[in-house]
Design a protein that fits this description.
GO terms for molecular function: nucleic acid binding. By secondary structure, the chain is of the alpha+beta class. It contains five helices and eight strands; from the N terminus they run H-H-H-E-E-H-H-E-E-E-E-E-E. The protein folds into two domains: about 90 residues, no CATH class; about 80 residues, no CATH class.
Amino acid sequence: MGISVQPARLRTGRDKGPVERFFRTLREGLLEALPGYKGPDIHSRGENAEGEAFFFLDELEAMIREWTAAVYHCRPHSGLVDPGLPGLRMAPAQKFEHGIARAGYIEVPRDPDLAFEFLPTKWRTVQHYGVEIDRRRYRGAGLPAPGIRSPYAGPVKNGWPFQIDPDDITRSYFRDPGTRVWHALTWEHAPSMQMPL
């Protein structure tokens, strides 16, 4: 479901307020109507909760997703108001449509490293000291060892592609062809420069 875990601070109840409120909304809007629901305490438990439970986790996740899209996002929320119409309560889907109508749709790249693909490419061979690009030597973790054959058929024999940001020459970027992970390589003189370039 795309959830990240962030521990709450000890004895700080307000850290979990929004999450607990959503759990209550989910419980009251969907879970209480499902067979096998146990409830938040022993008094809410049905007679044969274990016998009635028959949903697998993937089925339950699909139901929660469907309920979120069909019910939760279509029901007005007290916290979603238009400053121009303070008496109007809006559903999350309406607020989203309102935002699209006012500002347009902005597609956010799903891969945070996509920007590296658009940087200029320099083809270079890897040496024992690292890689030299425009008379600057770069090195760092993730750089292939000298002598390892490049799987690329670029303009340089046994060359590897390196991305260079023209606005920041202190780093070059290399993508490992096996893991597809980007590595930042540092210019050897960058640590001694304590000023922006």
